[in-house]
Amino acid sequence: MRRKRMKGIGILFLCGFLILIGRLVQLQIIETESYSKQNINLIEASINQRTQSYVLDDGRGTLLDKNGTPLSDTTPSLVLFPFLKDREWPIEVVASIVNESPNKLEKAFEGKKQPFIYKTGLSVQEMEKINQLSTPGVYAVFKPGVEGQLAGHVIGSVRPNPELVKSKYPDKWDEGLIDENTKMGISGLQLAFDPFLLSEGDTTLLYHADRQGNPLLGLDVKMFSTSDSFYPLQIKTTLDLDIQNALERAVDESGITNGGAVLIDIETNNLSGMVSRPLFNTEDPLGAGAVNQMLKGYFPGSVFKTVVLAAAYEQGVSTSRTFDCDRNLYRDGPGNRELGTLNLKNSFAVSCNAAFTELAEELIKKDPNFMEKTAEKLGIGSTVGWEDLLYHYEDFKQFPDESNPVFFKSEKDKSVKKAIDQTAIGQLNVKLSPLAIANMMSTIARGGEPKQVRVVSDILYRNHSTFLSFNEKSAGKDQLSNKVVKSLQQSLREVVVSGTGRSYLSDLPFDVAGKSGTAELGENVPYDHQWFAGYFPYDSPRYALVVVDFERKEKQYRAYEAFSKIVTQLYKNER
Question: Is the pTM of this model over 0.85?
Answer without folding.
Answer: no
